[in-house]
Amino acid sequence: MPMKKSGESVRLRLVYSDPTNDVAVVQSARPIAFATFSETSPQLGGRVVAAGFPLRGLLATQLGISNGIVANTAGPGDDTRLLQISCPVQPGNSGGPLLNDQGLVIGMVVSKLDPFRLLKASGSLPENINFAIEQSVVALTLQTAGVGFEALPRRTVMTDVEVSAMAQQFTLPIDCWK
Fold first, then answer.
1. What CATH fold (topology level) applies to the domain 2-170?
2. Which residues pair with 111 in a beta bridge?
3. Of 4, 38, 107, 156, which is most buried, counting CB atoms within 10 Å of its CB?
4. Rounded to two decimals, what is the model's pTM?
């Protein structure tokens, strides 16, 4: 599967896939910048930044950023593998990092609540109910795949602009073809 950075394609190899948690690990022959994980669990109400390529091609092709908070530390049915986030996300954000206010990874964006399904079930349209896989699940996936990663304790709080600049270094679009 090719990955593009600055118009350049790089071939990737699927190393490990976890369909249950919607996480995959890919490998490049060339080194790519990497993200650092937070040692601490995401906190309810904590500021977050989601990075990805929302509706790439329809909207811009460059990295997009949205911010919000950790709205809940569990997903539907009290699923603690998920974080509920208020960051707006679209198709193309999936797989992108969810960063805290220190630029550390606390999750990976995976989905949004289907508004039409909820409208039918409750008579109400939801707003900004989106989900990320919690960092411990992503870390376990990396460990299972034999991929090392770094986790740091708290560090200096950053602005969203600074967190966004960090995300640009290690967030890349991936296109899959079979």
1. Thrombin, subunit H (2.40.10)
2. 131
3. 107
4. 0.88
